[in-house]
Amino acid sequence: MTAQRVCALSDLEQDAAVRFEVDGVAMAVVLDSNGEVHAIGDTCTHGDISLAEGFIDGDTLECWAHGSAFSLRTGKPLNLPAYEPVPVFAVVIDGDDVIIDPAVKVEL
User: Fold this and answer.
1) How far apart are CA 54 and CA 35, in angstroms?
2) Where is the Rieske domain (predicted)?
3) What is the per-residue pLDDT across 87-108, written as a single tens digit (0 to 9) for each?
4) How many domains does the chain have?
5) Among 67, 98, 102, 99, which residue's Cα sits nearest to residue 87?
């Protein structure tokens, strides 16, 4: 796996998640209200639901189906019913390009 351009920064809407697949890895990419871009695993660890269809609140992404919220920074669930974290991927912004390598996970 190698780093790939997934989209233009200008393609992302603030406080919205977009699903991308990079080298077979599904991820939710979010431009938060502070202008930071985050990439986390797209599948809720509780219900096998796409997190990109969820709701952004600050630096959390909430699963629309059962309400589990995940930290965009750590991937850790912040409430039940999920108790397993989702992976967090390193994001590089190069000009207007959002570049993500699914093999580079952020460990916190």
Assistant:
1) 19
2) 4-100
3) 999 999 999 999 999 988 887 6
4) 1
5) 102
CATH number (domain holding residue 48): 2.102.10.10
Q: Give me the residues paired with residue 93 across strands.
A: 98
The pTM for the full model equals 0.94
Domain that holds residue 52: 4-105
CA distance 70 to 5: 24
What is the 8-class DSSP label of residue 40? E
pLDDT tens digit sequence for 29-69: 999 999 999 999 999 999 989 999 999 999 999 999 999 99
